[in-house]
Amino acid sequence: MARILYHCRDLNRPSGGVRRLYRHIEILTKHNYPASILHDRQGFRVKWFDSPAPIGYVSTDMNFTADDILVIPEGHTDIMASTVFLPCRRVIIALNWANIFASLPVGLDWNSFQISGAIAGSEYEQTFIRETMGLDSTVIVSGIDSAMFKPSATKLCQIAFMPRKNARVFHLIASAFRSMFPEFSEVPFVPVDGVSHGQVAHVLAESAVFLATSFPEGLARPPLEAMASGCSVVGFAGRGSLEYMEHRKNCYLAADMDVLNAAQLLGAALRDFKEGTASVMQKAGRETALRYSLEREEETVVTYWGEFLRSAPLVASCPRIHPHVTMGESPDALDRCLGFEDLYDRIVAKAPDDANVVEIGSGLGTSTVYLAQNVRASAKGIHIYAVDNFSASQPLPRLVPSVSRQGGSVFHAFCENIRAHGLESLVTPVLGDPSLSASRFPDHSVDFVFVNGHYGSAKIRSDILAWVPKLKPGGGIGGCHYDENHLGVIQAVGELFPSGRYEIIQCCWLVENPHSSTLALGNESYLGSHTHTQNTLRSC
């Protein structure tokens, strides 16, 4: 039977998105679906709420089947990329419309990752997904526990707020409010932060007013929970919450980021509370919140997954690669000779059977294909991580024609090149800046790093310094373009490695076992390590 796995970051601070992911798994397991949360770090557990949801952990030996479904939140673009060759179906869940493109290079969208489905958290997100990417999505309701979030018998004249939601904007509103309404100088602002879900409910239950400062939002739960708790809600909708926030009917709604109007409305809400005229709006707010019930959320979750599992897999369209975008066949896109075949041959020949090889700057995947074909021929269990930002915004001039044929995305072409040669199980794409992406690998976990770049010395230097700590003892690092046309490469290598510590092969440089001596940095040395932050899901 198909497993449904929701990937979730290891966050141990209150997050509405994390709570929603757990809630989906709780519902699915209640209805006997084999579902679980998938965290990155072994043994991680959230501490700010209790949940019976089963938990699994990312590991490089996970076996995915075509029946499995991996659910990826909209901001986890690294996971979208690294799992693109997995045999399972993948569904993206949008928890905040503003995160959809935030981590994607210009030219990439969800179509680039060949997804099988999309879940929206609000009506606006559904519209945003359709209008920007041409993809259909299903809205799943975000439910509020109205038994937990309910008014207390008496309300205190205080303003609850969440400091983690645009703290700077809160400061501006609070300052303007204090200046405009000296008659309310004794009314306290009560922060709701770093506490359990039950403690949040207690503060909201006894507060007369809740100040919503969050923008942007997919569908904000705190204002709904405040409405359920009988608060007069004042502030922003973050665009996504406009589906339930109605000015002067169930809330005091200010235009997003309108500090002046928010401060004015805060005074109006307190005046209504003091005069005993707030009850009508508070009642309307609770009635609004009750429409977003846990029962309705459960119904929409079960309905969505029941229909999804009954339907044939639907993979988002992705432009097929031009038939000439293969090794050495397209003069307008690719060199006829890589120039570093000898080094790649040597890497494969010397690598242990279970080696991890990182290629920085994979581009269209031509060099990746050459390396992976050698790996396949060797029958070794070597795995390749292809690290690139795959940006379509500024491709090399010689790549422009081929990139244009692929819809403007280098990532499209890379994936199709790998698929065309049947190398999916040997390669994991890693989408991101090469230097920053090193933090996703544990220290001493990589056997060889190849820096396929011809940019300036500062960037080459940054990549080398980021990746050397990731090498196993006895591992190696090297790169190409060590020639008079690329003086930045020569400069970076010469500055970092002592004379005689590197070897030149064709137009490549190679340093074996760089841990055996310090990297030369003027009068200093570099022996630092970089903290591992998360595993990288890979094809199995």
Structure commentary:
With 540 residues, this protein is α/β, with parallel strands linked by helices. It has three domains: 140 residues, Glycogen Phosphorylase B (Rossmann fold); 135 residues, Rossmann fold (3-Layer(aba) Sandwich), CATH 3.40.50.2000; 186 residues, Rossmann fold, CATH 3.40.50. It has a seven-stranded parallel β-sheet with strand order 3-2-1-4-5-6-7, with helices on both faces. The longest helix has 17 residues.
Detail the topology: elements first, then pairings.
Blueprint (H helix, E strand, L loop, with lengths): L3 E4 L8 H15 L4 E5 L15 E3 L11 E5 L3 H6 L6 E6 L22 E4 L2 H11 L4 E2 L16 E6 L5 H14 L8 E3 L5 H10 E6 L8 H8 L3 E4 L16 E2 L5 H17 L3 H13 L2 H17 L30 H10 L5 E5 L5 H13 L4 E6 L11 H6 L4 H11 L6 E5 L2 H4 L8 E6 L5 H11 L3 E9 L7 H10 L6 E3 L2 E5 L6 E3 L2 E3 L14
Parallel strand pairs: 1-2, 1-4, 2-3, 4-5, 5-6, 6-7, 8-9, 8-10, 10-11, 11-12, 13-14, 13-16, 14-15, 16-17
Antiparallel strand pairs: 17-19, 18-19, 20-21
Helix pairs in contact: 4-7, 6-8, 10-11, 15-16
